[in-house]
Amino acid sequence: MTKVKVGIINVTGYAGVELARLLYLHPEVELASVTGRSAAGKRLGEVLPHLASIDLTIEAELGEVELAFSAMPHKESAKQVIPLLDRGIKVVDISADFRLKDATEYRRWYGFTHPAPQLLKQAVYGLTELYRSQVAPAQLVANPGCYPTGAILALAPAVKAGLIEPDIIIDSKSGVSGAGRTVSLQTHFAEANEDATAYALDGHRHLPEIIQELKLLCPQGSLSITFVPHLIPMTRGILTTGYARLASGKVSVDQKGREKLFQLYQDFYKDEPFVKVVEFPPHTKHTWGNNLCLIHPTIDTKTGRLVVISATDNLVKGAAGQAIQNMNLMLGLPETTGLEALAIYP
Amino acid sequence: MTKVKVGIINVTGYAGVELARLLYLHPEVELASVTGRSAAGKRLGEVLPHLASIDLTIEAELGEVELAFSAMPHKESAKQVIPLLDRGIKVVDISADFRLKDATEYRRWYGFTHPAPQLLKQAVYGLTELYRSQVAPAQLVANPGCYPTGAILALAPAVKAGLIEPDIIIDSKSGVSGAGRTVSLQTHFAEANEDATAYALDGHRHLPEIIQELKLLCPQGSLSITFVPHLIPMTRGILTTGYARLASGKVSVDQKGREKLFQLYQDFYKDEPFVKVVEFPPHTKHTWGNNLCLIHPTIDTKTGRLVVISATDNLVKGAAGQAIQNMNLMLGLPETTGLEALAIYP
Amino acid sequence: MTKVKVGIINVTGYAGVELARLLYLHPEVELASVTGRSAAGKRLGEVLPHLASIDLTIEAELGEVELAFSAMPHKESAKQVIPLLDRGIKVVDISADFRLKDATEYRRWYGFTHPAPQLLKQAVYGLTELYRSQVAPAQLVANPGCYPTGAILALAPAVKAGLIEPDIIIDSKSGVSGAGRTVSLQTHFAEANEDATAYALDGHRHLPEIIQELKLLCPQGSLSITFVPHLIPMTRGILTTGYARLASGKVSVDQKGREKLFQLYQDFYKDEPFVKVVEFPPHTKHTWGNNLCLIHPTIDTKTGRLVVISATDNLVKGAAGQAIQNMNLMLGLPETTGLEALAIYP
Amino acid sequence: MTKVKVGIINVTGYAGVELARLLYLHPEVELASVTGRSAAGKRLGEVLPHLASIDLTIEAELGEVELAFSAMPHKESAKQVIPLLDRGIKVVDISADFRLKDATEYRRWYGFTHPAPQLLKQAVYGLTELYRSQVAPAQLVANPGCYPTGAILALAPAVKAGLIEPDIIIDSKSGVSGAGRTVSLQTHFAEANEDATAYALDGHRHLPEIIQELKLLCPQGSLSITFVPHLIPMTRGILTTGYARLASGKVSVDQKGREKLFQLYQDFYKDEPFVKVVEFPPHTKHTWGNNLCLIHPTIDTKTGRLVVISATDNLVKGAAGQAIQNMNLMLGLPETTGLEALAIYP
Prior knowledge:
The structure is a homotetramer.
Chain A: E1 4-9, H1 14-24, E2 29-35, H2 44-47, E3 58-59, E4 67-70, H3 76-86, E5 90-93, H4 104-110, H5 117-122, E6 124-125, H6 128-135, E7 140-142, H7 146-160, E8 164-174, H8 189-192, E9 197-198, H9 207-217, E10 224-231, E11 238-246, H10 255-268, E12 275-277, E13 293-300, E14 305-312, H11 316-330
Helix pairs in contact in A: 1-11, 7-9
């Protein structure tokens, strides 16, 4: 059987690197072409020694492929993706360039005028668990951001069931790889090690994405969200803690209510291969290197508040793994193909 | 001039160790006696090589001192402290045994019947910034917990001014030394490294302490608090993010409101040597090894919510440093004596 | 096709856990039974959440299997392995109990009398690259220690070719998971983080193993080795730096000699799927989670000394991965089956 | 009493930052002026928040001081130092620009022609323990490199006593702050975390410095040294392990020899306030933030080899602390002034 040829635009960032790793063992697709901004002409293994087994040269332009992943930064990604779409190539865009439905948001949050607003409607938001049926036939899938993935999955069941008041706090803790491979003082080892800090208090770019998606699920139709991301000294992983008042009369504020809540989450995700509702607060380490999202919902019975925690690997379920999950659907393959590996622990 | 003799009960835990380090250079007191549970008879430097310059043998019973620090675990601490009080010795208790005013809380949160409920009234809660005048003449000071220190200092100005609705979320991220020197799987390097997790979702023992103190400041008189502690892979530091809705009509939800809020915090702490209200989200690294609490208050103008972040070193301002700050007052010394060292960075 | 049933004795240690992870995706064998010292009766996922997809209950005794891995500590392992051998089961023993050929060494280095010295001759030392043909037909394979794996592979080509004087220094730096899952002060997060130290200066138990194997390769027949292991603050990985004087007249002490040396190493390992001779000093991170050993040999031209560096993941090539590599041979499978995954980076 | 005014050239690098921290509490000198390459005009606390208590503005040119520390990179440092010397200002240069006595070495190792070779003779190599009497009257002290400090102190007693053959291996493991504050991929958190690697195998710039100093101590007059530095994932600390064959007939290769060796080291350093000869392999953590060098010498009795291990904080004894130690002597102050703080542990 011939494998489907796929390619990666900008393989040298962390999302691109992780795509290459995961695609290497994928049984149904062949990584046929990779591009990289400054590394064109070099062997992949020269730039990224752990990928030396992949027999490819980094190219300036993507070769012939049926599906392409774009791991370019935002704004640059759209420029590269649009011509591919015109050529009929399927695209999973890991950047933010097609996630938001409202083109004006790009000016507000990303500071540029979107070059192809008409594509925003066509693009499917690739949070597979919520958009599975639209992802399958899509030509363009906008892969969710790392924070939105864990945050939306953690809150979707409660929001959709009208269980909580539409006023949510999302406190996320991210490993440093989330900031990418481009060097900066903030991500310098001696600065980031043994340090924790909050950032983007004026509004992180992932906020409009979280609002857009949770609002669609929300019976009340409107939603207030405070989102504060934090940087903590680990390489991979995002732990997100969500807080919201329980809507009155939905679940009781006691152990029974907790059990009902847990059941509701389990039902919501019962057929999901990559979302596990767990009985204890999850550890990011239990998702290290794999595509799982672990979710623990509970009730603070002293205050009548939902507390829900999710753990993911920001580079897998938060980026490359989810992109492959979407690719699988777009190519008519079983959703879990190539994504079955267990987390690496310890 | 003769130095005041002080002692440490249970010098071998991390709080005890840190007390010894800080007292070593204190110009007005002399560390005259230290005890340790299993290490009695050994030289201090044998058990803790970095303290080898301190010429002391670990004893089974505390020798003659004017003031004693107890760094024993809760329940055990009270047993050792009570006889010292009877002998007229001043005590700063780093354990939780005298922090809560309501004796029944000890049964609920700590699982034991308090042996001396009458002392709870006498004990002064040693959050120096709030109780300075009571600390000075006290015989018994209950040193605050590491989480309460950063949380109460972060929220006190807003609570006292009636700026926020009395419904608060406190999301704290702690380094692993907060769990102490006793080994456990949770704090095993290979488990805690590259991991983040929440814990104590049913209610952490520091919650009643936070509620007790903020309630006293609260014009409304009652208060609802959700507190979720998280463990992150660093040795020292607590970063706390507090969230609460602004009470209507107090500050405007815009940049002006932010400035007013900032001013209110600056005024509140204007004479405090160890609390700095800062213009950017603080880094725990900027408090590494010293007694500062850095606080950044802001308004999420999209939702009308106070977001306030504090950073401390859990072993200094969250334990040993604050204990010495209290000791200084109790001995009539300038409050900052021996605590002037800058943070160690990077 | 029916899969071969295999089992793990003591699945709850780090080597056992890693075996379970790697076997889960192995296409030709089925993990059919696992035992654990204190966890018998529990579901595997209860004790080790990241293994929840493996549908097994931890047992007190191993069930029916064709091949068993023992991940018990030394001395205990032999006790469990011997009865299995009597029943005709193939065994890969990850402990040290069958690595040394001379039974008296067990008394000297491990402090016990070996219960079955006759088995020491029968056991094959499972450094696959050196003993491939003996491993295939063996019933009992003694899987090498984590330090010896990287050290022997780094030095074997030079020793065998008589390139160096038989007087070697091996300086190894290990991640903390090498100390296992049993908690201790040495491996407590707050102690091991931000720390580096040497240990076992009187002689580490892996030394006789290194000597035994390198001596067999050594034309001079005798060999002096100083081996100093160090603990550094990371979870996985061993970096080993070997030093020895070049024997006179073998390679020139210049760039030409370096190239000849490099070629000799490349030839030595040219057919090896899991050993890569690399042109730059290797990073342990480039082996994270996979079975590779990366080796960089060079000459210090200022002193005429061989410097050779190897990097492995102590839990994979240094334990579980190599054990599966041996199992593959013992079961007549291609050696790389189930071990093709790339390293996880970053 | 008026304090002596001192200044720091390039306060914004890690050595400069550490100087500022340590000088802040120095009782006899006043930090009166600081310069910084791109930060001139900013308040010190704006650029380095943990230094906010130091009331200084970063200047383009150093103001009036009696003694200046240069924390500039090599080549740039000499340019700034030479005019200061002409003005009669005392200088402790933390760069390499005056460490090597032979000007041709600068072309070979640093790639530039030394601008003032005549000053190389005048400059005193500031390894205080070896050059105390020359440091005191010096105008220009060349502060040793971080690796040479730990390496030379570890080996000096054995070399000087002729105890070892003049053929030494030095294997050093350094925390990442040693690479400075300038960002790079190598020191990017996600790259350096969970990684160990060797570097500079062709010869590190600190090698000629180590050779120069040990050769001066060496009775044989010539010396062969292989030096391999390694980068390990911690912020501060250097652990150095030195290896050399014992010269025949000097000490016996047994426990007695070990004791004699230990005694010789103790005698060598018996009056040194900052060098401690210790009975167990030292931990870098036990020097975190302070000026100690811990040394453990032993004999590998199986091979007749000296193994000696030293631990320092690369930014204190390896840079800023030692610079202040030298300053104290140059100003006629007790050597330990301002350097008495214990290590911060854990």
